[in-house]
Design brief:
single chain; 141 residues; globular; 4 helices
Length: 141
């Protein structure tokens, strides 16, 4: 991963399970410092304990709390001025059976849309000013 991947410190949103955890693990294995973000503090703590504080740190945050995203971003960048990459990897997916319209839960669909799209847009908007100040390479993925 290090060849062709120029970033040294990556914030991985969704790093405590699934694809995000595997990605964060691979980055750490390749010498990249990871800031793990997830909703559950116990999973963040387990992640940092597993990889050690010299390679990993973490912060608990639920990105569906869109009104708190600006404060979250301020905290992250103040603690990590050397952050050079943000990887937005969290999301949810629920099964929807449109063959049975009575079973379709519009509130569930709204939650999924808010989590997977609107929250990602809000995170992008909040992190871009910081990334635009970077002198070297920086990315939001």
């Amino acid at each position: 991963m290090t060849s062709g991947f120029p970033y040294k410190k990556v914030l991985v949103v969704g790093a405590t399970s699934g694809i995000g955890e595997a990605l964060a693990e691979r980055m750490i294995d390749n010498g990249i410092s990871v800031i793990a973000v997830g909703r559950r503090q116990e999973r963040i703590d387990a992640f940092v304990e597993k990889y050690g504080k010299e390679k990993a740190s973490g912060i608990s945050f639920d990105l569906t709390a869109r009104d708190k995203i600006p404060d979250f971003v301020t905290t992250v960048v103040e603690r990590n001025p050397d952050l050079d990459c943000i990887f937005l990897n969290s999301g949810i997916q629920r099964g929807i059976n449109f063959a049975e319209p009575e079973s379709v839960d519009l509130d569930m669909i709204e939650t999924e849309f808010s989590t997977n799209y609107l929250s990602q847009v809000a995170m992008t908007k909040a992190f871009l000013p910081f990334l635009q100040t970077k002198k070297g390479k920086a990315a939001l993925m």
